[in-house]
Amino acid sequence: MSDNKTYSLNLSAQMILGIILSVLVPIGGAVYYGITLFNDLTGTIEEVKKMSSVETRITVLEDRTKAIDRQLLEVMMSNNRSLEKANDAYGRAIEANSIAKGTADKVTDNINNVKEEMKQLRKAMINPLNN
Hints:
By secondary structure, the protein is mainly α. The chain has a domain at 31-102. Helices cover 87% and strands 0% of the residues. The chain has one helix at residues 13-126. The longest helix is centred in the middle third of the chain and has 114 residues, at 13-126. It is rod-shaped, with a radius of gyration of 55 Å.
């Protein structure tokens, strides 16, 4: 009693089209999603590369800023040394000026004393008897 049953799969063109479309729609959606995801990832990778170059630029600018800060510090220290030397020179100039004035005063006093003595000598020579 074995009945051989034969099955026939008669698919119409409309059914085949329906099956193909029912398979293609999810596959197409998955492919679309995959392509957009790939594009998004590619864009993200490019942005990261750009960010990397921006970070490199930032690092370079930070290094330049640090170098400028060091140079500025060196200039400020040099200015401080120059100011100290200028203050020392000014103090020495004031001291030299006061010494020069004191010396000039002494010379003037000596000249006045010599003139006074010359007057007295002249008087003594003109009138030796003080008459």
